[in-house]
Please model this.
Amino acid sequence: MKSALPLLLAAFLMTAAPALTAQSGSLGLPQSIAAGSAFSIPTAGSGQAVLYIVGPAQALRRDVQLGEPVSFPAGVLFNAGHYLAILVAQGSSLDAGQFDVVPAGPPASLSFLAEPSRLPVELQGGVSGTAYVFDAWRNLIVAPLPVTFQLEQASGSPQTQTVTTRNGVAWTRMNSASKEGAATFVARADSAAATRVIQEVPGDPCNLTITAQPDGQQVRIETAPLRDCSGNPIPDGTIVTFTENYNGMQSTVDVPLRHDVARVDMPAFIGATISAASGVVAGNQIRWGGSR
Amino acid sequence: MKGALLALFIAAATVALIVDGTLRPIPSALAYAGGETLLRTPSTPEAAVENLGDQIRLQQWQKAWSSLANKAQFTEPEFVHDLTGYFLSLRTYAMLDNFEVFPLHESADGADVLMKLYWASVVGPFEESRQLHLVRQGDRWLVEWPLVKERHVPPQVIPVDYMRWDVINRGPGDDWGAQNVAAPHVRIVDMRPINRAEGVFVLGELLNDDVVPAWVSVRATLVAKNGAAIASEGSFDMILHRLLPKQVTPFLIRFPNVDLSQVDKIRMDPSAELVSASADPVIEIQNQKYNPAPDASLTGQLSSQSGEVIGFAHVLSTFYDRNGQLVWIAGQYMSRALLPQTPMDFRISVPQDLAGQVSSERTEVATFSEDSE
Model:
C-alpha cells in the first residue's frame, strides 16, 4: 500500500494537468541524475508553485518560487528508477515531465549468494556463486561490470574467474578441492567485496575394514581409520553399523565414529560372522574363531 | 408441527433416560463415578483377578495392593511402580483399557491364572501378560502379585564423549544474500509399494548422505492414470526422524482403502532439516531372532551402551527377502524406560502372509528422553 501511494498521488496530479490555465510556469528537467547526488531544476514563470517528484520508492514536495531553480542537496533523491516531476499552482498543474535516477558511481556493496554451504570434496561445478552489485544507496547497478570470483581452498591454487554482470547479476560455478576444509569464496567488484565460507567435507568411505579381538566374554570389533577416496578422514559422528550373525540370531549396533574409528563390543560366539557398513558402503566380513 | 412434536419427544426421552440412569445406574458407571465398587466376592480365582483388574483400571492402587496375598513382600509404591514404571516412560501416561483372565490350573488351596492387560497409551495400545498365583484363605481367593523389580544400575559416573552438533542459522536481521547453512542431503535408497487388504503400503529406506545430522520425513503421493492425486500421506512415526551421518532409516507409509491397480505412479517427497543432535545414546540390538510362522515375529533385546535413562524407545525393523528386497517394516514402542546397560526384550510381529518371504532383517531404535532435543 505504501509503495502504491506515490503512484496514486501521481495519477491524481496528472488528471489535474489539463486544467492548467490559472498561472504559467515550466520546469527544466535533466534527462537523468545520479542517485544521491545534488541537483537543481530550473523553473520559468512567476509566482508561487509546488513541485512534486514521484518515483517508485520516493516522493518529494518542494515549495517553488517560479523563475528560480529548485535545489536538492546530495542524499535527498537516492532511489534509482523512473520519476515524474509535476509543477502545481492553485490546484492546477503548470508543467510536468519525467527523468531517471540512475545508480551512482562505483560498486559499493555486493549481495553474494554462495551455494551450497557444505559439499563433498572433488565435485566438479559443485560450488555456485551469484553476485548482485549495488551502489552506495543499495541501487542495483545494471550497467555491465566485471566481477571476480575467487575460491581459495585448503589445498591447491585458488580458482579465479572474472564474469561481466548482466542486468546487475554475475554468476559462476567452481569445483571443490580434493582436500577437506573450509574454502573461502570471495566475490569482488571494484572495491566492493563479499566473502563466504564453503565447508568442503569428505565423501563416502573408500573402504571399510574391520578387525576383531577377544575382550573377556565379548569380542571387540574395530574399524581401521576411515578415509574417503582422497584420503580425507571421515568425520566423527558418522554411523557405522556392525552386524553379528550367529546360529540364526543377529545383533546389530549403530556406532558413531570417534577419532576416525568405530568400535564396539559384541557377544563372542565361535563361528559368528561379523560385518560392518556405513551408509551404502559395505566392509569386510569376519568369521569369529575365538582368537584374533 | 411434525418437527415440534419430534423435538418434544426427543426432549422427553432424554429426560426419562437421565432419570433412569441416575436412579438405576449400571455397576461399571457407578464405579467410574466414584460410587459403589464393581467388586464381587472373590469366591473364585477368576473373580479375585477380575477384582484386581478393575482396581488397576480405576487406579485404586491402595485397594489393589491391600487385596494382595503377598503385600508384605513389597510396598504399595513398589506395586504402583511395577505397573506404571519406575522412570518416565510410556507407562507413566498409560491407562489400563481392558484385561482378560485365563485360568491355567486350580486345586483346593491354590490356582494359577494368566492375566492379559491391555494398556492404552498416547502411541496406541500395548499388551502385557502376567502369570498370577492365587491362594485360598477361607472362602476367599487372594492374588499373589509377581512383582517385577526393575534392575537399578549402581550409582556411578559414565563419561560420554560422543559428538554433538549444534546449528547456528542465519539471523533474522541478516541481509537476504547473507549465507545460511544448507539443509542436509538425504536420498531414498530403496522404495517398494505393496498391495494388501487394508490398502497400499509404501515401504522404503532413506539415507542421510551428509556429514551432519538431519531431521527427516517422507511423504508419498499416489497418482492415478489420469494424473490426479489419489492420496498423499506421510510416514508419521514409522521412520527414524533423527538421522546421524550415513545412517539409514526405514519408512512405511499407509494408504488405507486404496488398491494398487488404481495407481499409475508414486511421487516421493523426502525432506530434511538441519538439527542439533547428539550421537549419544548408542543402543545395541542383541540376540535378534526371527521366529517363522505361525505367530511370526522378531525378538531381541535392546541394550543402551550409554549412561542415560531412555524414557521412550521405538524399535523399527525392516524385513528383506533372500534377494534383499523389502518385504515389510514393523515397529514396537517399549513401554518401560531403557536403563543403562540393562537389556530389555522386544517382540515385533510380522503379518502371517508375508512371514514366509522374510530372509533377513535390520533393526534400529529411535529414542526420546526427558532431556533430549
